[in-house]
Each structure stands twice: as C-alpha cells, then as structure tokens.
Amino acid sequence: MSKVIALFGAGSGLGTAVARRFGREGYAVALVARRAGPLGALADTLQSEGIDAAAFPANLSDTDGIPGVVEAMRTRFGAVDAAYYSPASTESFLPASDMTVEMMRERTELLFHGLVAVVNAVLPEMRKRGSGAILAGFGGTAAKGLPFMSGPAPAQAAARNYLYSLHGEVAGAGIHVGMVTVSGVIAGSDYHREMEKGSHDAPADLEIPVVDAGDVADRLWRSANGTGELESTFPA
C-alpha cells in the first residue's frame, strides 16, 4: 500500500507543487480545501499525471469537522503518513492597530486552531507506528512582524511556535516536523497572479521576491524524510 500525504490547503501554487513532489515518490495524495470545484480539478490533473489523488472538500476553520475529514482519508487511502498544513487565507494584510479581537479570532481558527486539530487527528497513529511527518508553510511575517502587514501573521506565528515545541516532543519517536517560511510570493499561485495584475494588498513600496514552488516542495520532502531542517526560509 502506498504512503499517504494529506494536504490541508491544496492551492494552485505551493500545495500543487507539494502534491507533485510527494506523488513522484509514490505517495497517494489527499487534497483538502474549501472550494470543491478547483479541488476536484486538481485531483483530476494529478490523476492524469499518474498520481493517486482524491479531493476532500472542507472548511478548515471548522475544527470540529477535521477528525471526520481524516477518517474519510483513512477509508479511501489508509493512515496518513505525512500531513502538510498551509491553507490559503483570502484575508488582506492589515495594520496591527486596526485588528480587533473578532478579526483575530477568525484568522486564528483557520491558521492555528486548524493545524492543532489536524495534529490531534493524525499524531496518535504516527506515534503508534513510530514514523510520520508534520509539515507546514508560512509567510515570512510569521517569523518577523512588519508594519501594516498584520492580519494572518500573528496566527501563523502562533502555529510556528507550536510546531517548534512539537518538534522537540516527537523527534525521538521517529516523527519529523518541518516548516518552510516564505518571504515572497510563490510563482504560479493565485496571489502571484494578483500581484502581476497590480491588485495585491501588500504595501506599495514593498519589494516582493518570487519563489519557485518546486524548490520549496523539495525542501519539505527532505524534512519529511528527516534529511532536512526544522525550518527553511525562502529566499535563502
């Protein structure tokens, strides 16, 4: 039976690259995102490339529903060997001074609580068999706050901190934790297309480098196999 990677946040940029990178290594790919149409189209594309893939549409802000999504994956593929969490937030960057408790709560549900729910759902089986990988992707503002670029960043910073702690707890059990922090835009992503049209939400004077999704996906592959770093930053 093939190993399984579950992508929680299977978008057009990095998520697709991660699916292809692991699929080339023989992994079955479980795809999770909110919009069923694009998700199904991605699954069909991967299938046409010889990768066993299936779509599991879900709202990752609904943390109570995540165990059911993981159970559906088990029914279709078997136990999850690697989980990658990086849902695309449609929320704009905002000044920290404009953030309210409710605005922060919404972002935290998706970007932090959802990750914790995924770990809760997959970690027990990983511990039992003594192997597995927990992977995640963040924007650069998760590691370094910038003026006028709050919004998703504080929630991602919490998730990053959580994974640093988790790494120290599970490394001795054969479970690898790996993160990529991207201070730029992923080539081919929806945000990259918006940037090319001049309609992105970052400060006008901010220079945004473009990062190759394949390079980032390869680093996550190495982390999943215990040959990479706990956290890799892009651009290097």
SSE layout and pairings?
Layout (H helix, E strand, L loop, with lengths): L3 E5 L5 H11 L3 E5 L3 H13 L4 E3 L10 H12 L4 E4 L15 H29 L2 E8 L13 H18 L4 E8 L2 E2 L3 H7 L13 E2 L1 H12 L6 E4 L2
Parallel strand pairs: 1-2, 1-4, 2-3, 4-5, 5-6, 6-9, 7-8
Helix pairs in contact: 1-7, 4-5
Task: Report on the architecture of this protein.
This protein has a single domain (4-234), classed as NAD(P)-binding Rossmann-like Domain (Rossmann fold), CATH 3.40.50.720. It is built from seven helices and nine strands; from the N terminus they run βαβαβαβαβαββαβαβ. By secondary structure, it is α/β, with parallel strands linked by helices. The termini are far apart. β7 (185-186), α6 and β8 (210-211) form a beta-alpha-beta unit. This is Short-chain dehydrogenase/reductase SDR.
Structural class: alpha/beta
Widest sheet, order of strands: 3-2-1-4-5-6-9
The helix/strand series, from N terminus to C terminus, equals: EHEHEHEHEHEEHEHE
The rough form would be described as: globular
Number of helices: 7
CATH superfamily: NAD(P)-binding Rossmann-like Domain
Task: State the low-pLDDT regions, or none.
Answer: none
Overall number of strands: 9
User: Span between N and C termini?
Assistant: 36 Å
The count of domains is 1
- Helix percentage: 40-55%
The second-level CATH architecture is: 3-Layer(aba) Sandwich
Radius of gyration: 17 Å
